[in-house]
């Protein structure tokens, strides 16, 4: 088990900057999720930490030992590959046991651990099969089992649950999380599924275009997103954004536009701001400190457990509102919604960074 | 519908006949006694004889040439795989400047007629005492087989995901060991098929072998120079001897034949 | 240079050295040999160009290539389409078709000789059927045209399978959904062939063509065995000059011409082709 420290990591593939200066410090035993859109460099970062990819610039430390130039075999790591990389010429049992065999564990110990891992991942009946005889999801579980049989200093997982059905995924999520807590192994986990990220990660690192956007707990990412990208990427449906004018009345500041006048908590020191509000933070009734806004319904998604209302605002604005429960709205109906002022986010329109008020 | 079906099978039959007839007839001719062969009214012999094959092998020293042929083929395969396999691996697994130029040059070496090389090679061989030796022919055949081995192994390796190797490296093997334990076993069937094909290439090559040797001739070279001055039925016996092993070998590689070309088209 | 690049070069170096020594150097010394001598540098070539046999050899080589290559291509495509229907027993047919792939040109020539020699099976059949009373001669200086066609036929028989295998591989790599989509949109069989299959097959066709054209210019074995120098070809003259006349200079000049033509053809093909469409060859 180890702390992992990454300093100004860069990895260029010719002109493509897959990683463009990543700094990250991961605590011993922590479960960190790498979250980001496809092609943002998650796999590349994982491969750089594993040593499979020679980095262009920067350093990687495990505890206080620099491992930047250490070959993968000397790093004492474990990895689940995005494409599983389950060896086709070995039976499932041999696949899972192979890392132990390389490390020269005694036979009975190998057998014991293989059995344990197979049970955990629900693949005990498959031990005698070859990978070609497995489904994608089963192969993926073999890959996970292979990665957890030995206790590595760092466990790297690249979308290990992407190919499982919804039910199994939910179950595996909690199993993996519990297992990680019990083993206490430092884990870096790649996903682009936000639910997975939110529920599993002690901390989440959000990436875009090879750059780290924000590194924090699920609550920090959700409640105080560092920039427009993070705010928009996390949460579903996406946060509403409006580019608004700033007006002041004495010491009070307001964001004005689209038929709304939103009081701000302080001086943004800008003529314009981007105001952000999540659909779930707009209600159909006034409560606490809310701001009324009138909107015209044009499309309704009924999910029964919740209702998602797409509306038009004046000046061509669009507002999406999420109301719990099965509520009925008419298309074309004019109705009032209430924006929760405590949940309003303000961003700088130029830098797209969050403005602290 | 029926007519269509009959027509289809007729075409299939025609194709099979077109490719098989010459093979069948050379076998027939090789097993026909001399007097029957020269009798214009006897298409099918009154009995079969192994006489021509026997004489070719034991009176005309065919067995010695066969052994030399096998030696040459095995040495060439050994050298070209020892030299070519690492190159094929590097061509798929590494990126480096000049890779395409190298691939292209290796490809173009295949377009140079071997006869062109045989002449100057003989001059070199004289100097190094390799003239008229098994090793000399093997080295020349290696030059013919090596480009094929590099390109084919490279396409075989590119059909095996790097990540299998990388997974092994993550779990504690060096790159070399990961190659030996993971990639090599996965590549083995394809490699065996290409080795067999290399064998056929060497086994069939005759002109370089005849230029480079006098007394240590490979089977085809030996046949070219003895059977050609013998009666026709000896020639056919020779043809049969050369055809049979190659046909057996290709039977074993037939599963990989198409995919070998298919993979390499990527 | 980075570590990985060094490793890559070290892995490739033996191959490069080997090919440089066994192909590059002989090629170079061929060049030198053809151009060197007491007389003027290009005298060998001047002699060559004044020799009628050279022009004959060039003519016959070109004629053979012109007949063989197109016929092989059409036959191979038809065969590949037939085998690719995967009818019951197709793998047996596949094996039968690929048999010539395992045979050398010498063996192929011998097989052809069994059929076409004066005592060969064609003559025997015809005589037994009473259609002819004396054997038809296919070989000999008097019957150059017949020899030419027998050679062309033999080469077509021998080397079509190579083209076939490449085309079949290409055919099998075509995504079935393209054809299914065509079915849905109501393409006729002919439209499917000309609008979908053949265009998608173009890379395979091009690489097969390149290889066959190159090898067609090296044609030798079959010609030498069946017709000797009745029908001179470039590679045959190389062999004849070196072995029979013991004239390495002239042999080298012929060799140079072959290498040059080969390079020019490769260049023409490659010009319209990306290198990934290229294919390695087996004779
Ligand atoms: N070997 C390579 N050569 C060139 N470019 C590469 C290579 N590997 C990755 N890239 C590029 O680097 C960027 C990051 O790729 P990476 O695989 O890390 O993305 P990712 O975040 O894992 O995406 P996904 O979620 O789709 O798996 C992409 O633009 C990709 O095209
Ligand atoms: Mg990835």
Key structural traits:
heterotrimer; A: 357 residues; alpha+beta; Rossmann fold; OB fold (Dihydrolipoamide Acetyltransferase, E2P); six-stranded mixed beta sheet; 8 helices; 20 strands; elongated; B: 266 residues; mainly alpha; MetI-like fold; binds adenosine-5'-triphosphate; binds magnesium ion
Shape of chain B: globular
What is the CATH homologous superfamily assignment of chain B? MetI-like
Instruction: Briefly note the structural class of the backbone of chain B.
Output: mainly alpha
Low-confidence stretches of chain A: none
* CATH class wording of chain B: Mainly Alpha
Fourth CATH level, the homologous superfamily of the largest domain in chain A:
P-loop containing nucleotide triphosphate hydrolases
Helix content estimate of chain A: 10-25%
- The pLDDT mean of chain A sits at 93
CATH T-level fold name of the largest domain in chain A: Rossmann fold
CATH topology of chain B: the name is: MetI-like fold
Q: Roughly how many Å apart are the termini of chain A?
A: 40 Å
| Largest sheet descriptor of chain B | none
Largest sheet of chain A: 6 strands, mixed
- Based on secondary structure, the structural category of chain A is alpha+beta
SSE run of chain B: HHHHHHHHHHHH
Tally the beta strands of chain A. Answer: 20
Order of helices and strands of chain A: EEEHEEEHHHEHEHEEHHEEEEEEEEEE
- Total strands of chain B: the figure is 0
The percent range for strand residues of chain A is 35-45%
Task: Provide a quick synopsis of the model.
The complex is a heterotrimer of chains A (357), B (266) and C (283). Chain A is α+β, with helices and mostly antiparallel strands and 357 residues long.
Structure description:
The complex is a heterotrimer of chains A (357), B (266) and C (283). Chain A has 357 residues and is an alpha+beta fold. Chain A has two domains: 4-233, P-loop containing nucleotide triphosphate hydrolases (Rossmann fold); 240-347, Beta Barrel (OB fold (Dihydrolipoamide Acetyltransferase, E2P)), CATH 2.40.50. Chain A has helices at residues 42-50, 92-102, 107-120, 136-148, 166-183, 194-200, 218-223, 228-233; strands spanning 4-13, 16-26, 31-35, 57-62, 65-66, 77-80, 154-158, 186-191, 203-208, 211-216, 240-249, 252-257, 260-264, 272-277, 282-283, 290-302, 306-312, 318-324, 334-340, 345-347. A six-stranded mixed β-sheet of chain A has the order 6-7-8-3-9-10, with helices on both faces. Chain A has a five-stranded antiparallel β-sheet with strand order 13-12-11-14-20. A five-stranded antiparallel β-sheet of chain A has the order 15-19-16-17-18, with no helix packed on it. The mean pLDDT of chain A is 93. Chain B is mostly helical and 266 residues long. Chain B has one domain: MetI-like fold. In chain B, 79% of the residues lie in helices and 0% in strands. Chain B has twelve helices and no strands. The mean pLDDT of chain B is 86. Chain C folds into two domains: 1-35, no CATH class; 42-282, MetI-like fold. Chain C is flat. By secondary structure, chain C is an all-alpha fold. Chains B and C meet through helix 1, helix 4, helix 5, helix 6 and helix 7 of B and helix 1, helix 4, helix 5, helix 6 and helix 7 of C. The structure holds adenosine-5'-triphosphate and magnesium ion.
């Amino acid at each position: 088990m180890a702390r992992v420290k990454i300093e100004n990591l860069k990895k260029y593939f010719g002109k493509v900057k897959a990683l463009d200066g990543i700094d990250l410090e991961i605590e011993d035993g922590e479960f960190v999720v790498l979250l980001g859109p496809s092609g943002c460099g998650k796999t590349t970062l994982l491969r750089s930490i594993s040593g499979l990819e020679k980095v262009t610039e920067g350093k990687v430390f495990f505890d206080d030992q620099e491992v930047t130039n250490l070959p993968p075999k000397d790093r004492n790591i474990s990895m689940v590959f995005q494409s599983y990389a389950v060896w086709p010429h070995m039976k499932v049992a041999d696949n899972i046991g192979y890392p132990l065999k390389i490390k020269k564990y005694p036979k009975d110990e190998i057998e014991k651990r293989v059995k344990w891992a197979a049970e955990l991942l629900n693949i005990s009946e498959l031990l005698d099969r070859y990978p070609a005889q497995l489904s994608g999801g089963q192969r993926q579980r073999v890959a996970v089992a292979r990665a957890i049989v030995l206790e590595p200093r760092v466990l790297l997982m690249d979308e290990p649950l992407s190919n499982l059905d919804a039910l199994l995924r939910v179950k595996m999520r909690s199993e993996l999380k519990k297992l990680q807590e019990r083993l206490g192994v430092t884990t870096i986990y790649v996903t682009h599924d936000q639910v997975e990220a939110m529920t599993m990660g002690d901390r989440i690192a959000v990436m875009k275009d090879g750059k780290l956007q924000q590194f924090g707990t699920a609550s920090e990412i959700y409640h105080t997103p560092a920039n427009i990208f993070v705010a928009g990427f996390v949460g579903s449906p996406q946060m509403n954004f409006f580019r608004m004018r700033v007006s002041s009345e004495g010491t009070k500041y307001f964001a004005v536009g689209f038929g709304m006048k939103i009081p701000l908590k302080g001086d943004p020191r800008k003529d314009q701001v981007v105001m952000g509000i999540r659909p779930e933070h707009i209600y159909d009734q006034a409560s606490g400190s809310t701001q009324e806004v009138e909107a015209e319904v044009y499309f309704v998604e009924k999910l029964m457990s919740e209702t998602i209302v797409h509306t038009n605002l004046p000046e061509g604005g669009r507002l999406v509102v999420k109301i719990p429960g099965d509520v009925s709205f008419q298309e074309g109906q004019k109705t009032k919604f209430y924006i929760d002022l405590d949940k309003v986010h303000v961003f700088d329109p130029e830098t797209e960074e969050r403005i602290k008020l | 519908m029926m007519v269509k079906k009959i027509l289809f099978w007729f075409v299939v039959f025609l194709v099979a006949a077109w490719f098989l007839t010459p093979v069948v007839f050379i076998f027939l001719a090789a097993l026909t006694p001399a007097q029957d062969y020269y009798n214009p009214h006897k298409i099918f012999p009154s009995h079969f004889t192994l006489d021509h094959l026997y004489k070719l092998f034991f009176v005309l020293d065919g067995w010695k040439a066969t052994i030399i042929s096998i030696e040459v083929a095995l040495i060439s395969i050994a050298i070209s795989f020892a030299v070519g396999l690492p190159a094929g691996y590097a061509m798929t697994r590494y990126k480096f400047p000049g890779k395409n130029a190298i691939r292209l040059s290796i490809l173009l070496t295949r377009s140079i007629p071997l006869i062109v090389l045989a002449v100057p090679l003989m001059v070199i061989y004289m100097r190094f005492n390799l003239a008229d030796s098994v090793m000399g022919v093997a080295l020349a055949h290696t030059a013919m087989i090596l480009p094929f081995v590099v390109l084919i192994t490279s396409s075989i390796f590119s059909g095996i995901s790097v990540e299998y190797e990388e997974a092994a490296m993550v779990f504690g093997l060096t790159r070399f060991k990961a190659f030996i334990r993971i990639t090599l076993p996965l590549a083995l069937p394809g490699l065996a098929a290409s080795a067999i094909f290399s064998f056929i290439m060497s086994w069939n090559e005759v002109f370089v072998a005849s230029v480079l040797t006098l007394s240590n001739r490979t089977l085809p070279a030996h046949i070219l120079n003895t059977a050609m001055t013998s009666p026709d039925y000896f020639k056919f016996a020779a043809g049969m001897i050369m055809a049979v092993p190659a046909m057996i070998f290709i039977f074993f590689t037939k599963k990989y034949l198409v995919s070998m070309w298919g993979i390499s088209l990527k | 240079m980075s570590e990985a690049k060094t490793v890559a070069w070290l892995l490739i170096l033996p191959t490069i050295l080997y090919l440089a020594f066994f192909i590059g150097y002989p090629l170079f010394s061929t060049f030198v040999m053809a151009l060197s001598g007491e007389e003027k540098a290009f005298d060998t070539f001047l002699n060559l160009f004044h020799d009628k046999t050279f022009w004959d050899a060039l003519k016959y080589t070109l004629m053979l290539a012109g007949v063989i290559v197109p016929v092989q291509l059409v036959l191979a495509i038809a065969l590949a389409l037939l085998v690719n229907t995967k009818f019951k027993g197709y793998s047996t047919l596949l094996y039968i078709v690929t048999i010539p792939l395992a045979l050398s040109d010498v063996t192929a020539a011998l097989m052809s000789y069994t059929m076409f020699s004066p005592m060969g099976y064609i003559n025997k059949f015809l005589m037994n059927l009473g259609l002819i009373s004396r054997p038809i001669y296919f070989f000999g200086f008097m019957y150059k045209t017949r020899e030419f066609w027998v050679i062309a036929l033999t080469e077509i028989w021998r080397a079509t399978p190579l083209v076939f295998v490449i085309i079949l591989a290409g055919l099998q790599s075509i995504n079935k959904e393209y054809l299914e989509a065509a079915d849905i949109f109501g393409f006729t069989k002919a439209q499917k062939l000309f609008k979908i299959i053949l265009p998608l097959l173009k890379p395979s066709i091009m690489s097969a063509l390149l290889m066959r054209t190159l090898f067609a210019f090296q044609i030798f074995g079959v010609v030498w065995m069946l017709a000797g120098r009745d029908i001179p070809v470039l590679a045959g003259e190389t062999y004849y000059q070196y072995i029979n006349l013991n004239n390495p200079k002239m042999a080298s000049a012929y060799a140079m011409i072959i290498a040059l033509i080969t390079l020019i053809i490769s260049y023409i093909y490659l010009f319209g082709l990306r290198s990934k469409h290229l294919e390695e060859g087996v004779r």
